[in-house]
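Lab notebook page, bench 4
Experiment: in silico fold of construct C2
Operator: M.H.
Input chain length: 421 residues
Purpose: comparison with the prior construct
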Amino acid sequence: MNILALNCGSSSVKYQLFDWNKKEVIARGMVERVTIGDSFIIHEVPGRDTYRDEYECPDHKTAVHLIIKILTDKTYGVIEEVGQISAVGHRVVHGGEKFTCSILIDTTVLDAIKEVQHLAPLHNPPNISGVEAAQTHLPDVPHIAIFDTAFHQSMPEHAYTYPVPYDWYEKHGVRRYGFHGTSHLYVSKRAAVLLGKPPKDCNIITMHIGNGVSHTAIKNGISIDTSMGLTPLEGAVMGTRCGDIDPAIPAFIMQRENLSPQEIDSVLNKKSGILGITGEFTDRRDVIEAAEAGNKRCTLALEIESYRLKKYIGSYCAILGRVDAVVFTAGVGEMGWLIREKALENLEHIGIKLDREKNRNTMTRKVETTITTPDSPIKVFVIPTDEELVFTEDVVAILEGTYKDHMNFNYSFSENTFQRK
């Protein structure tokens, strides 16, 4: 059984084909510059050279067709015909309050996803386009929606309700939703294994740090608070997003700079964060290199980011009470030893004793590592995330009728015997 996972962005489509019987990825890749011209595909198969080809994709339907064409190609493909794809898992960023777990897509479900797309206007429309495109090319297989927001639907009302007029929530759905749910789910389950405890007995702070950044407080195995809010703009400092700021700033700048709501939204989402501070970088490797060369704004960017990370660790320790572990994951979380060190230094008073040497030697996206000392009351793990595996297991479980929701399902990666391939 082969499961295709699709992640459709506004101008890209990421894909992965997973052989469920062999429990391994047999192909993955990405179509870039969809809808904007000069598009191309990068296709990776274990044991082969990476394949790249230019192919004009004016829409997501064409991009999905290209993916299927490459997967079944006699030279570059890994399957003989499209009929060897058993099901498709689709990343859907926002499920609103309608969806608390992954679900088989039918007309009613797709209509419900469309009803909440105003909550994620940058993400849900391309997600929907991807679903419709895949249904066109693969009409006879099940399609499953996996929601970024589902993992966080366990948050209590006092954590997700904003102190704004309550009818904004009733009329428009204004509340905290949270994102990166599949990543937080995966690494929290793996952290429980490393702790040698069932997830329901673990209190964990998970820190997903990439271009997008979000943190989650997990109590007794479920999300009780998270840093992103109604949209992915709230929370930590990110590559191009501002995160937490004084809410009066947008109105103030709109008046001073004569900007429209759309223009200020674009600035806060695409020109702020690390890019806004440095004026030129989003990649933390570039920021660190420039800081070491004496660039003061890059040094400032590193200090701001690590300071904000430390604040979230402290605040989540406060609401969790007992904390068993902190987990760093995603590109920067897995590779950025300097940012981890700055975020964790001088936290001995709350129970985090960093092993600086182990932390500095941990720069990998393949191995799970403990970067605290053996006597540290709170463990800190670096755990490479695997969101696609969550996709795949949800899809298979729904097909087999064994899935209820993520809180009542035994994932393979929550077992002691699990080995990452």
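Observations: The chain has a mean pLDDT of 92. The first strand starts at residue 2 and ends at 8.
Next step: discuss at group meeting.
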